[in-house]
Amino acid sequence: MMVTTAISYFKRYKMEVDLHDLPTLVLPSDFQLLPWSEEVLTAHAEVLNDSFHQEIDAVIFPSLSSPNGCVTLMNVVSRRVNFLPGATWLAVGPAGPCGAIQGLHERGGVGAIQNVGVTPAWRGRGVGEALVLQTLHGFRRAGLGRALLEVTARNEGAQRLYRRLGFRRFKTLYKAVPDTHEM
Ligand SMILES: CC(C)(COP(=O)(O)OP(=O)(O)OC[C@H]1O[C@@H](n2cnc3c(N)ncnc32)[C@H](O)[C@@H]1OP(=O)(O)O)[C@@H](O)C(=O)NCCC(=O)NCCS
Fold it and tell me: How far lies 133's CA from each of 53, 65, 130, 159, 176, in Å?
């Protein structure tokens, strides 16, 4: 039997950006961005698992902490009525898939970034920035005016990346995460 012994609260920021004046995408050489199709669902899930399983967000969102959890997550996200294929991209580098991002169309002409992850070996080369920017252009092409995302407060590297692309914090929230144990 699983029991909850405590609840931890994780500080998160909502960040938003106006989509009217986006910079041009510069993709690092040797990388390409593949558009969404059912055929790349498993690759998205594998990249998410490799990118998140040792990160703080996998504690907050347990589905990001296992291969099966990531497959389930991708099935749920890609079957939502507001899933936006044009804002969902897979980065492929010299050794295969290495980055992924998914986008949703929220009410009020707003795009919502679901997950952005780059596998550890391929970080720091601009792949994450290219994925986010490609998704912002996808939101724009879908006629949206604004985009938002949530980021964990202690994830400062990701926040720097988002700020470089024009995102600004507009809300602080606390995500409750139950500590559950087998008894
Ligand atoms: C955040 C993330 C997507 C950035 O991908 P990336 O391809 O390294 O991004 P870029 O090369 O475009 O930008 C690198 C920035 O990310 C930061 N970063 C975070 N972790 C990094 C790492 N292990 N290696 C290199 N850069 C890292 C860097 O600080 C850098 O910012 P800076 O140049 O201002 O210092 C990637 O680190 C990642 O997948 N992290 C784990 C999953 C996660 O937290 N996703 C964000 C959820 S909101």
Answer: 24, 26, 5, 14, 30
